[in-house]
Amino acid sequence: MDASTTPLALAAYHGDSEIAKHLVSRGAEGALLDSMGRNTLHGITKYLPDRHGYLPHQWHYWIRHGNWDNHSMQLTDLVKILVAAGAGLNAKDKGYPPMTPVAAAADLGVWDGGVISALLAAGADLKESLLSAGDTVLHCWVSITGPRLDYPRSYIPTLQRIVQAMPSLDIPNKYEENTPLHLVTTIYHSEDEFEAACDVLLSHSSPADINKKTRRGESALSIALEAEIAPEKKGRFLLQKGANATDTNSRGRDILYSIANNAVLSDQTSHDLMLHFLDSLGPNPQEVYEIHYLNNQNSHDSIAAAAARGKPRTLALLLSIGLSKNVNKLDRSKSPPWTPLDQALHSAEISRRAHIEGLASYKAGVSRTHALEQDLVYDSNQGPPVRAAEAYKDFPDVIRILQDAGAKRRCDLEDNGDGDYIAQPAEWDKHEMPQYGFKPETQPNVEAWQGLYELARYKSGWKWLHMFIGGKKR
Known about the structure:
Layout: H1 7-13, H2 17-25, H3 40-43, H4 49-52, H5 57-65, H6 68-84, H7 101-106, H8 113-121, H9 137-142, H10 155-165, H11 180-186, H12 191-202, H13 220-225, H14 231-240, H15 255-261, H16 267-279, H17 285-292, H18 301-308, H19 312-320, H20 340-360, H21 366-373, H22 385-404, H23 410-413, H24 425-431, H25 450-454, E1 457-458, H26 463-469, E2 472-473
Parallel strand pairs: 1-2
Helix pairs in contact: 1-2, 2-6, 5-6, 6-8, 8-10, 10-12, 15-18, 16-19, 18-19, 18-20, 20-22
């Protein structure tokens, strides 16, 4: 038996301020520590099943306290009682890293807004309250969403209390060097909660730096534009709040790459969002692009991203504002390097295969028809079903637009007949396609894939396929 099993420690865990008050009046000591150096303030949020039973902690709160307002008031009283009884408000336990009570309450998986707020109201110091990986209490709190909390209403009020108590809102954590604003943008907040949280961080007397970058050179804006939830709305919101639309990351990629590469954004939305950001910098998109983006180290990666995602309108826009001169620039992050046309052909081939495999997983007839209507038979790597279906249908246009702009395959630029550094149709069509019940001439949308076959390059063999569809052999 240790201090975590005293009646006062058990009352603290169960959030019962009346019992705690009575025990203290009878001589209960709040300064006692358990074997890990935790006092009764730590103990409010430290769950030990052999001592506390198996009823989830929030049930004790809901049963004893009811709504958030009453819960907050009860915990404020409890913390005052325990501090008056000798519990160290800023004492650290013996864990790794050593935690203060407020850090323990904010730890990942705990996220106890009532205890955090009560400890801060009592004067808890956040300067010394660090958690693993250098995260502050603020980092931990923004890493959760309101609906996952015991009291969803507590998210913004607790955030406001933490922000007021923080020595700085721009403290980076270790390793990734994320600030709290980066994490707000990364986590799956709803649109309304995201905007409310950003407003708290950006309206403070010493506001968060909206353009501060992570170790990888990502800003909150670039992170938002790569998000899976509401990237368009988050991006527009941050731009309105003063985000720099011309920043690049450590790989020399700009926000247009982030937009083009986002698998959630439709082609039309990507196109319109790019124009929105360009329009924010001046009335002429081509002039704006040439001044602010064209000379970026890897501006051409935006073409490859649009090609890889099957976004013809977005691709055409990028080519029209100045990137047509880079249409054959190599992506040297791949080995061997690829051109944008290589990327388009590779992604198109993967999408074609995934569609055939998807169709074969449904019985021909009503089941398959329903799957087609629901867009359930496309490459999931291209995003949600509707977006994946759009990419599949638009890849032929992407290939055509690139060819019209003078795009070539790397093997053609180097007069090398071997194009098998990307996925090509021949081998898969011969060895894999028959097991899915199709032949090259009976595959879905065979006419649309003519360009894919014509641009295939083989070192040797596959004459039967060339005769049918026209792939080249050198």
